[in-house]
Design brief:
The chain has an 8-stranded mixed beta sheet with strand order 3-2-1-4-7-6-8-5, sandwiched between helices. The longest helix has 27 residues. Strand 2, helix 2 and strand 3 form a beta-alpha-beta unit. It starts with a strand and ends with a helix. The chain is of the alpha/beta class and 317 residues long. Helix 9 crosses helix 11 and helix 10 runs antiparallel to helix 11. It folds into 2 domains: 195 residues, Spore Coat Polysaccharide Biosynthesis Protein SpsA, Chain A (Alpha-Beta Complex), CATH 3.90.550; 108 residues, no CATH class.
C-alpha cells in the first residue's frame, strides 16, 4: 500500500510564486497525498486557495497564522496533517513531477527518519542567483552536517510528533535543528537525488546579505542549544578563510567571473560571520533546554571547524 503523504507549504507575501508552486504540486505522479498551505501573508489570503481548490487533484487545506517564522508555520501544518510522511516545500520552489514519489521511495526501511532531495536553481539569470546556488549542496549537508534544507525535505510524522516538531524559538536554522534532533533519536537522514525541486534563489545583493546574516544568527543559536558545537571556532575558521580569499583574489582578476564570485563569497561570508558573532554575543537559549550530548554523527564537521585550535597552539605555545 502507498503511504499517505502530507505536503506542507508555508507562504508569506508571495502570491505568484505560491500559484506556481501549487501548479507543480498538482502535477505529481504520486496520487496519495494532501496539500496544506500555511499562510502568514498580508497579500495572499484564501482567495488563492479558493481559486485553486477546483483544480486540485487532492485535498487542499488552507490555514492562516500570524507571522511567527517558518518553524511555527510548519508546526501548524504538522498539527493538521494526516499523512504518514510529511514533505516540506517552500513557496518559492517548483516541484518536479516525480518529487513526492522519489522522496517517499527513499523511506525504504524504518531507520530512515528523514529524506532530502536535490535543489536546482530555477532559471538563474543574475550573477547573485548563480552564486547563491552554491549554498544548496543537499548531499554534502546531509552527510556532513546532518542538515536537510527546508525547501526540499521529508520526515516521518510519528518522529516529528515524538520530538515535538520544530523548535519555534528559531527564526533561522530550524531545519538544521530538526535534523540534529532526529539523528539524536537514532534515525538516519538520506539524500534522494531524483527528488528535485527548482528553487528561486535571492536575486539581489541586498537580499543575499540579509539571508546570510540571518543564517549566521541561526547557527549561533544552534551553538547555544547544542553545547558541543564549536561556534567560536567556526567564526575563527571563517575569518581565516576570508583573509586567505582576500589575499589570493588578485590572482583571479583576469577571470572576471571567478573574481566576481570571490567578491560575492567575501561579502556573503562576511555577512554570515557578522550574524554569527552577533548571535554568539547576544542570542540566548534557556539553560534548562540545552543539549549537552556529543554529536558523534557530526564529528567530521566539528573537527574541520576546530582545526584552528591546532594553528593557535603552534602559534602561541
Amino acid at each position: 500500500m502507498r503511504k499517505f503523504v502530507s505536503v506542507i507549504v508555508p507562504t508569506c507575501n508571495r502570491r505568484t510564486m505560491l500559484k506556481d508552486c501549487l501548479e507543480s504540486l498538482f502535477n505529481q505522479t504520486y496520487s496519495s497525498y494532501e496539500i496544506i498551505v500555511v499562510d502568514s501573508s498580508t497579500n495572499v489570503g484564501d482567495d488563492v486557495i479558493q481559486e485553486y481548490k477546483s483544480k486540485s487533484p487532492c485535498t487542499l487545506k488552507y490555514l492562516f497564522q500570524q507571522p511567527r517564522g517558518p518553524a511555527a508555520a510548519r508546526n501548524l501544518g504538522i498539527k493538521h496533517a494526516t499523512g504518514e510522511i510529511i514533505c516540506f516545500i517552500d513557496d518559492d520552489c517548483i516541484a518536479d513531477k516525480h518529487w513526492i514519489e522519489n522522496l517517499v521511495a527513499a523511506f525504504d526501511y524504518e531507520e530512515v527518519g528523514g529524506v532530502g532531495g536535490k535543489i536546482v536553481a530555477s532559471d538563474p539569470r543574475t550573477l547573485v542567483e548563480k552564486y547563491a546556488s552554491t549554498f544548496f549542496n543537499q548531499e554534502y549537508l546531509i552527510s556532513v552536517q546532518s542538515f536537510i534544507i527546508g525547501c526540499n525535505m521529508a520526515y516521518r510524522k510519528d518522529i516529528l510528533d515524538m520530538i515535538g516538531g520544530f523548535d519555534e524559538s528559531f527564526r533561522f536554522s530550524e531545519d538544521n535543528d530538526i535534523g540534529i534532533r532526529v539523528r539524536l533519536k537514532g534515525y538516519e537522514l538520506r539524500y534522494a537525488p531524483n527528488a528535485v525541486v527548482y528553487h528561486r534563489h535571492r536575486t539581489s545583493l541586498k537580499g543575499l546579505i540579509k539571508q546570510q546574516y540571518g543564517y549566521g544568527k541561526g547557527h549561533a543559536r544552534l551553538g547555544k542549544k547544542y553545547t558541543s558545537l564549536p561556534t567560536w571556532q567556526l567564526a575563527m575558521a571563517i575569518w581565516v578563510k576570508l583573509m586567505w580569499i582576500l589575499a589570493t583574489s588578485p590572482l583571479e582578476a583576469l577571470n572576471r567571473e571567478k573574481f566576481a564570485f570571490r567578491m560575492l563569497y567575501t561579502i556573503s561570508t562576511t555577512s554570515f560571520l557578522l550574524g554569527l558573532i552577533r548571535g554568539i554575543l547576544f542570542e540566548e537559549y534557556p539553560r534548562e533546554k540545552r543539549i549537552h550530548e556529543e554529536l558523534g554523527f557530526m564529528q567530521d564537521y566539528i573537527k574541520s571547524v576546530s582545526i584552528w585550535r591546532k594553528v593557535k597552539s603552534k602559534l602561541f605555545t
